[in-house]
Amino acid sequence: MIFGLVAGIALMAAQSATPAAPPAAAKPAETKVAAPAGLRPGAVAQIVDASGKSIGGAYFHEGPSGVLIRVEVSGLTPGWHGIHLHEKGVCTGPGFQSAGGHINPGKKPHGLLHPQGPDNGDLPSIFVEQNGIARASPFTTLVSLKGAAGRAAILDADGSAIVIHAAVDNQSTQPIGGSGDRIACGVVKAAPAAK
To answer: Residue of 58, 154, 155, 185 with fewest CB within 10 Å of its CB?
Structure first.
């Protein structure tokens, strides 16, 4: 009987208590480019949209056979987008034609799937999620930061740029695989020295 009375009082107290607040909404993801733990990039690029607003960036890590590029961007249309390395380190909007063509000293046809390609600036396309964010880590054996092992240099005299296009790159048709307009661009620069 006493147990029942105590349980009843506890139940009444629980019912009269203020209802718990609903869980807080998740904060939208921030576009911050962070180097993978323990790795210092050899080069970096701040990526801007056609209006010049920063939408993210990229880190470039030199490996023994190529370059690993970590890309994080936001504010893009969901779906696949072509992304390439361009021959000049200039990103003047809105069309970013200032970046020139792809890095391509051997004058090869465009496309990772082209039988006589690819050119040195070709990379796999990136996928933008419904929230407008893309995170990717393409690897390329076609360039190096300073021209190691006969590969084209990203950090040469006129620099280079990483460019994102409006549509997917089909990796075979000329000149850019049908990837369309240049919608974002980042000048690739040597990473600051460690302090």
So the answer is: 155
